[in-house]
Amino acid sequence: MFPIFENELLEFMTNNTIQIIVPFDFTEAAEKAVNQAALLNNQIPVTINLLHVVQSNDVTEIELKLKDEVKKFAESGIQFNIVIEKGSVLPTINSVCKNTQANLMIIGTHGSQGIRQGLLGADILKLLKSNPCPSIVVQKTSEAVKQFNQILLPVGSHENYSSLVDAVIFIASSAQAEVIIYSIKRPSEDPSDILIQNTQLTIAKLKEKGILFKEVTEESNMVSFGFAKQTIRYAEEHNVDLIAIIPNASMDHAYFANADKEQLLTNSQGIAILCSAGL
């Protein structure tokens, strides 16, 4: 969880650094995740915890390779910690995030082909559903974003939707970004009460924190089961830097059911995805 919402942002930045977990498996996608984490230091002080999960006790070579990775950022002034843990990849990552009380995880994925530690499309979704802290997912094809200028926030009917709004506010506050409150309307379908409530909640929170925002509602214009394709297309056409989603399906409408969420997480356009499970 971000502690930022109990204090003003400037006070937090003065007295704290953001603890970021970056699962690292020496792939191109993992490199993209580290680079993205390092760029956040331009907006708010960060400590990057480089995490590698091993299956054996022989960690000497792994430690040396991780130290070589850290050396690439020697002139950045960023604090790095090397964390090597033994165990199964997904539960170990989540356990480290919980035990270190990380503020953010940034992770890379190769999309449908997965990464070396087994984070296939479905697996990374499984990871995010049980991860206790907000996460940014970047693709192998992603370009590191120096500053998140526009964040697309699709409205959801989740009971814990406020956790995603809080994560968006944190990123938007530090980057002075604009938030686009986005919804897609199907023909002859009225928004549910909880969807309306979550929209009102989002607007109230953004106004309270002084975040620039606008509302965009589009008619459904693509023949598909979910809304991922239209959401990605809107993001691409409007140069959106970050799309925010809850990885768990809502109890109301399955706008972002598993297949839809996987399509967003592994999007070929390389748009970063911000997730919060609200745990």
What does this structure look like?
The protein is of the alpha/beta class. The chain has two domains: 3-139, Rossmann fold (3-Layer(aba) Sandwich); 150-275, Rossmann fold (3-Layer(aba) Sandwich). It contains nine helices and ten strands. It has a ten-stranded mixed sheet, with helices on both faces. It is globular and about 60 Å long. The model is unreliable at 1-14 and 113-118 (pLDDT under 50).
Helix/strand layout:
Layout: H1 9-15, E1 18-23, H2 28-40, E2 46-54, H3 60-71, E3 79-86, H4 89-99, E4 104-109, H5 121-129, E5 135-139, E6 150-154, H6 161-175, E7 178-185, H7 193-208, E8 213-219, H8 228-237, E9 242-245, H9 258-265, E10 272-275
Parallel strand pairs: 1-2, 1-4, 2-3, 4-5, 6-7, 6-9, 7-8, 9-10
Antiparallel strand pairs: 5-10
Helix pairs in contact: 4-5, 5-9, 6-7
